[in-house]
Hints:
29% of the residues lie in helices and 27% in strands. It is an alpha/beta fold and 224 residues long. The longest helix is centred in the N-terminal third of the chain and has 13 residues, at 30-42.
Amino acid sequence: MNAARKKQLAAQAALSYVTEDEVIGIGTGSTIKWFIEELGARKLRIRGAVSSSEASTTLLKHHKIDVVDLNTSGPLSLYVDGADEADHHLRLIKGGGAALTREKIIAAASHTFVCIVDDSKLVDVLGQFPLPVEVIPMARSYVARELVQLGGRPIYREGVITDNGNQILDVHGLKIVDPLSLENTINQITGVVTVGLFAKRPADVLIVGGDEGTRTIERAKARS
Ligand code: 5RP
C-alpha cells in the first residue's frame, strides 16, 4: 500500500473524533488534505474550523467550511493534524510544511489533539527527520550558531517564508533522546519563534495508517 493511501486511511479514522456543531482545529500538510476532503465529502456539519495555514484555509473554503479566528472561537475541543515524526509517547516533530507556529498555538488551545500519520513516521527516537525551527529573519545566523553548539547541523530552508513572515532552519543530525528538555532549550534561544518539537504538548491520540489498516495509540491523559 502506498503512503498516500495510508494517510487517507488515518484521515478517515480521525473523522470519528469529530462532533457536529463544533469548531475544530485543522493542521497542514498532505495528510490533513485528505482529512479536509473527507470532511467535505461526508458533509459533516461542523460549525467551522480554525486553520493553521493559508494553504489549509484555501482548502477549507473550497469545501465551504467556515474558517474561524482562534481569538473568537474560544477553547477548541479537537485539533487534527499530521506530523513528520512521532514517537511512542506521542511526542512529535512538526513543521515540514512550515506551519509549526500556528500548529503549536492551536494544539495548545485544544483539549484533544489527534495526530494522523502513515506508518513511516512512527519512530523509536525522534530526530531522523530534520528539526524545523522558525526564526525571526535577522536572528537566523545567530540562532544557527547556537544550534551548532547543541550538536545540530542547521540548514537554512531557502526561499521559504512562513505565514508569519519568518524563516526556517532545518536542524540535521540531532538524536533527540530528551525531547522536552531540547524543546525548552531551543525555546530559550533569542530569535527563535517556535521549535517544531511537540513534547510539552504532545498528541493525545495517534492514528497510524499502515498495510493492515489503522491502529490507534492513546496517551494517558494528564489534561482533563
Ligand atoms: C506542517 C506539518 C505537517 O503536519 C507535517 O509536515 C506532515 O506533513 P504530511 O502530512 O504532508 O506528511 O507539520 O507544518
